[in-house]
Amino acid sequence: MREYEVTVVIQPQLEEAERNQLIERLSNLLVPGSKEDGALTANHWGMRNLAYPIKKFQEGYYVLFEAQIDPTRIKEIERSMQYNEDVLRYLVVRKGE
Question: Residue 1 carries which DSSP code?
């Protein structure tokens, strides 16, 4: 298990309930099953302006996850986020590098 930071930009037009469900699904994707204390934290940065339009959106809802993830699961996580229409952009970075 290694520590990673996963930054996700979510479509701004989602209702709060839909956005919270998406964030919960992403949390379960990052750390499936039982969540250990400190294994996953989600920092909500809120609505921010984008540097350039993405899919005709000028702003997005940012969430930063800090998680302990098995490195063999990174490709699976990235593929799942890539095919989710509500995720505009994502970035997975190993901490400490």
Answer: -
Give the fold, CATH level 3, of 2-70+84-94.
Alpha-Beta Plaits (3.30.70)
What are the residue ranges spanned by the domains of the chain?
2-70+84-94
pTM here is 0.86
Q: Tens digit of pLDDT for each residue in 20-38? A: 999 999 988 888 765 555 5
E strands within the chain? Answer: 2-10, 40-54, 57-69, 87-94
Over 80: is that where the pLDDT of 97 sits? Answer: no
Identify whether the C-beta of residue 44 lies closer than 8 Å to the C-beta of residue 63: yes
